[in-house]
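Quick look at the format.
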Amino acid sequence: MENHDDSYYREVIKLGSDTYSACALAKLNINLKIGKKESSGFHKLSSIMQTISLHDRITLTKVDKGEEGILGYYVKDNIIAKAIDELSRKAGERLYCRISVPKTIPVAAGLGGGSADAAAVLRIANTAFGLHMDTEELEEIAREIGNDVSFLLYGGRALVEGGKKHSIKEMDTPKLYYVIARPKMKLSTKEMYALHDKTGKDFTELASELCPDTRKALDQIRGENTVESGVTGKGPTVFGAYKKYNECESVADQLSWLDGDIFIERSVDKFV
């Protein structure tokens, strides 16, 4: 288990004259309520979100035109490229850079990995290019990129409510350890919302029906010492929170049957 204090996750570190690095933290949806679909195409959501110590370590290097690129990131809609595009538009100049993202946060797992990476890139590029934008200015950009990106600029625990326009209400971050179980099955966000609109079922129910390992793992995680538990995001990943690290170890041992990933992480407080 990592033994860093929260400042480790906040820092943008200068590695060289043109190279900077920072953490991109995963999030958990402690709960998630899906409301009506807005004309913007976004659903109204209400969710308590919590950042955890599971993270990608992103490195950004300023380069000349023609040398830019994103390494180790293979998704259809590249949210990191979108983050650089939006930040460049706001800055009024093209921010040429090469970004390396060795992925640790599983993709399409409901842990907000892409949004976390985009939020971290905004923070790193703001420092690397000397833009001096404050957090509120970065948040305006983040809102154009994705729903979770603005929360992940701040981190900690917050109640996030709304659709494309949403509010973030800071909450106290409890000191908890989390067992996180991620079955290998990937669930599409677009398809999960379509199923919700068709059936009215929430993501916990849908993920449990589509991925039997989700239901089985969640049943095992929930016990008398569990402080909070559930399916995060659209799933299929499930989590359980405990006050003691050794309680997490015991539960993780019971989940050794899972074909997927098991992490033991801790809550991380607000970055800024």
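Next, a different chain entirely:
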Amino acid sequence: MAGPAFDDRDGLIWFNGEMVPWRDANVHVLTHGLHYASSVFEGERAYGGNIFKLRQHTERLFYSADQLGFEIPYSMDDIDAACKETLKVNDIIDGYLRPVAWRGSEMMGVSAQNNRINVAIAAWAWPSYFSPEARMKGIRLKTSKWKRPSAETEPVHAKAAGLYMICTLSKHDAERDGYDDSLMLDYRGRVAEATGANIFMVMGDGKLHTPTPDCFLNGITRQTVIELAKARGIEVIERAIMPEELVNATEVFLTGTAAEVTPVGVIDTHNFTVGEISQWMMEDYDKAVGNVHAAAAE
């Protein structure tokens, strides 16, 4: 992503209840969240000065913290208000927000019962996650060697920092080979998701198929797109999907707060078209977030 380094920017970050100059929003190197991944976060988008589905994101932040065994020391209303304030003080109309909560540095070791829970919220202008050119023709995915873990192994439904380590490894490997992102399978060898987005496929039956999110996030954008598809009369089937079924797919697209709705043109040796359903979902999602824009202008 082009632009200045993320630790060297103008602006303000909401940090434990106060607005702090961007460059001063720092933590100690012995912070537990850095060493033991005891950190949860959200990714949110603002359109026209309003944050799309803010409360759902805040609810998930609190759920994720609970899954990691800590309590956020603010109410949901406090966090919602802080997100809105962070947008406002940074004069951002269309952008991205990153609320994050983590265990501090009072104890260093696996046990961290007495560590302070810190919360910060940053916001910045951010264009599409993938380039407009890539989105129009469909991005290219490479299947990763890393797999999403079982729900018995990790708190897989939390948006927790530690779960993204294999996503970074997968995306870096894909980019080295000229791809845009990775397709991740789960521990059973089933299709799961991309590194930061859910996946949908239009099969030969004309229906929209998507993996059951039993070991990865049931994304907020994913849920939105399912609602939009059903409103168009498109049948959505949530089920186990094996990678060998990709040969039967005619269209594939990703969904996520950052990715929005992004068509896929290639997965390994399989090619797909940016077809009618993909285009409908892009248009309908743009309209859905556009309604937020219109409400902000009233």
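The first helix runs from residue 32 to 36.

See the schema section for token definitions.
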